[in-house]
TrEMBL record:
<feature type="binding site">
    <location>
        <begin position="179"/>
        <end position="186"/>
    </location>
    <ligand>
        <name>NAD(+)</name>
    </ligand>
</feature>
<dbReference type="InterPro" id="IPR023753">
    <property type="entry name" value="FAD/NAD-binding_dom"/>
</dbReference>
<keyword id="KW-0547">Nucleotide-binding</keyword>
<dbReference type="InterPro" id="IPR004099">
    <property type="entry name" value="Pyr_nucl-diS_OxRdtase_dimer"/>
</dbReference>
<keyword id="KW-0285">Flavoprotein</keyword>
<dbReference type="InterPro" id="IPR001100">
    <property type="entry name" value="Pyr_nuc-diS_OxRdtase"/>
</dbReference>
<dbReference type="GO" id="GO:0050660">
    <property type="term" value="F:flavin adenine dinucleotide binding"/>
</dbReference>
<dbReference type="InterPro" id="IPR016156">
    <property type="entry name" value="FAD/NAD-linked_Rdtase_dimer_sf"/>
</dbReference>
<keyword id="KW-0520">NAD</keyword>
<dbReference type="Pfam" id="PF07992">
    <property type="entry name" value="Pyr_redox_2"/>
</dbReference>
<feature type="domain" description="Pyridine nucleotide-disulphide oxidoreductase dimerisation">
    <location>
        <begin position="378"/>
        <end position="486"/>
    </location>
</feature>
<feature type="disulfide bond" description="Redox-active">
    <location>
        <begin position="44"/>
        <end position="49"/>
    </location>
</feature>
<feature type="binding site">
    <location>
        <position position="53"/>
    </location>
    <ligand>
        <name>FAD</name>
    </ligand>
</feature>
<feature type="binding site">
    <location>
        <position position="202"/>
    </location>
    <ligand>
        <name>NAD(+)</name>
    </ligand>
</feature>
<feature type="binding site">
    <location>
        <position position="266"/>
    </location>
    <ligand>
        <name>NAD(+)</name>
    </ligand>
</feature>
<feature type="binding site">
    <location>
        <position position="305"/>
    </location>
    <ligand>
        <name>NAD(+)</name>
    </ligand>
</feature>
<keyword id="KW-0274">FAD</keyword>
Length: 491
């Protein structure tokens, strides 16, 4: 049996969250082993946020060029995927090579181990033949993988997940997108703008079902205007592939065919792979439950998508800051104990980093560990128009029995929307708690919906009184000035 090697911290999964935790703890002077089985950096830089937003940037440039007609003369648009694929390959992903990212981590003082990590009893992680005993803690940042529904025949076909969609060099002539959530709509619009015949099939009765119904309507209309066919309320029952084309059979006899099929029906954490039973944690759950310091159980933290608190890079980074502060606080406590001989330099490093990290989140005072608070969690779907949202939707607020006020205004009725003209679809919708006199949710849809959202995030996060929001000065003529109208319409 392999003798465990004693280290301070083991981080399993070096995606956005894990890499941040591992790197910052290593910089703080702890001995950190970072374990990654695929690419350091995870989904976001290689198959998620960054390459998809490069695709969106390109697709939006095409859409803007097509809007020249009637606004500024005429423009002829000839889409070409080659520069997009090249940019993703060369600038975003280094042809899906993480050499630079591994060096980024080791340069911070971390020790990198390539492989699959698995818990092997309290404080222990096994990676192949190597076993590490973590003195201060283990952090699980193992993320999620695409959740592929058990549709008859699907598993035997060469369907795409986001990986193949991002890696594509030659666009197909037609594409079926199974799933009308944020990722499905973003990719559907991109491919449609590059001339692919795109059909979206969604089981629920509207796309972007987690957002306000008005947002679903605007997004669906925008995609339809780009030529995307959208079928909601259709459950996929069977998939066939005849060597060249996919056929998707839905309930009620619906049938769709295309050259490619992209499955984007959600993401799943694979807890069964992590050896959780060896530390007394139930692996038969959808996500890893954590407390407000991201602790799973004694000496184990989780960070990012695996926690199920929101599959966003900004959540992973937010949680990472809390985990870092908490692990350092633990390390400081352990090292301050009677058995701390020989660890003075580490203690000094760790404490220094704890204070430089501030440990000063929303609710933490100086030196204390901040607690996670997701009330003002922002989310943006980067379709054109963008759909930005924060906090509760109207439905969620009403279901909680809150005394709700709703304020709504269309972007087109604002000065900036009117000036913008073509492409000005969107709105601001505010959800207020009438008893508290604060915003508890908001949706901002428009050409800059995600950017306008930031003001609303501050309002929800800091519980800015409505009276103050009404007496702010909003720059003229910005899109965010529509917030003032929506506030006026609250009732
Ligand atoms: C197409 C797409 C677009 C997106 N766009 C956005 C966006 O615009 N904005 C946004 O905020 N978010 C976006 N996201 C979500 C974002 O990518 C994730 O929220 C983020 O990557 C989560 O980071 P993470 O560290 O939790 O997990 P991941 O990035 O998934 O990283 C987890 C890592 O753990 C590794 N791993 C898993 N198990 C083990 C093991 N046992 N041992 C060793 N290693 C292991 C994996 O290989 C992986 O590298 C998008 C996602 C997709 C798919």
């Amino acid at each position: 049996m392999t003798e465990p090697e004693l280290v301070d911290v083991v981080v399993v999964g070096l995606g956005v969250g894990g890499e941040e935790v591992a790197g910052r703890l290593a910089e703080a002077g702890l001995s950190v082993v970072g374990v990654e089985r695929d690419l350091v950096g995870g989904e976001c830089p290689y198959w998620g946020c960054i390459p998809s937003k490069m695709m969106i940037r390109a697709a939006n440039a095409l859409a803007e060029a097509r809007r020249v007609d009637g606004l500024a003369g005429t423009a002829q648009v000839q889409p070409d995927w080659a520069p997009v694929a090249k940019r993703i390959r060369e600038e975003a992903t280094d042809t899906w090579d993480d050499t630079v990212a591994v060096r980024r981590f080791t340069d911070r003082g971390g020790r990198f181990v390539r492989g699959s990590g698995r818990l092997d009893g309290p404080g222990r992680v096994r990676v192949g033949d190597q076993v590490f005993q973590a003195r201060h803690g283990i952090v699980l940042g193992t993320g999620t993988r695409p959740s592929v529904p058990p549709i008859d025949g699907l598993a035997d076909t060469p369907y795409w997940t986001n990986h193949q969609a991002i890696e594509v060099e030659q666009l197909p002539e037609s594409l079926l997108v199974l799933g009308g959530g944020a990722i499905g709509l973003e990719l559907a619009q991109v491919f449609a703008r590059f001339g692919v015949r795109v059909t979206v099939v969604e089981a629920l009765d509207r796309v972007l079902a987690v957002e306000e119904p008005e947002a679903s309507e605007v997004a669906a209309a925008a995609l339809r205007a780009d030529g995307v066919q959208i079928h909601t309320g259709v459950r996929a029952e069977r998939v066939e592939h005849d060597g060249t084309r996919f056929t998707l059979h839905g309930d009620g006899g619906a049938e769709f065919t295309a050259e490619r099929l992209l499955v984007v029906t959600g993401r799943r954490a694979h807890l069964e792979e992590l050896g959780l039973n060896s530390v007394g944690v139930d692996a038969a759950q959808r996500f890893l439950p954590v407390d407000d310091r991201l602790r799973v159980t004694d000496g184990i933290w989780a960070v990012g998508d695996v926690t199920g608190e929101g599959a966003f890079t900004h959540i992973a980074m937010y949680q990472a800051a809390i985990v870092i502060a908490d692990v350092l606080a633990q390390a400081r406590q352990t090292n301050a104990g009677p058995d701390a001989s020989g660890t003075a330099s580490v203690v000094g490093g760790a404490m220094g980093a704890a204070s430089s990290l501030g440990a000063s989140g929303s609710s933490g005072s100086a030196g204390s560990v901040p607690r996670a608070d997701y009330r003002a969690l922002p989310r943006v779907t980067f379709t054109d128009p963008e759909v930005g949202a924060v906090g509760l939707t109207e439905r969620q607020a009403r279901d909680r029995g809150i005394n709700v006020q709703v304020g709504f205004t269309k972007l087109g009725s604002s000065t900036r929307g009117w000036i913008h003209q073509v492409g000005d679809e969107g709105f601001i919708k505010l959800i207020a708690d009438a008893d508290q006199g604060v915003l508890i949710g908001a949706t901002s849809v428009g050409p800059a919906g995600g950017e306008v959202l930031s003001a609303l995030v501050v309002a929800v996060h800091a519980a800015v009184p409505l009276s103050q929001l009404r007496h702010m000065i909003y720059a003229y003529p910005t899109f965010h000035r529509a917030i003032e109208d929506a506030l006026r319409n609250l009732r």
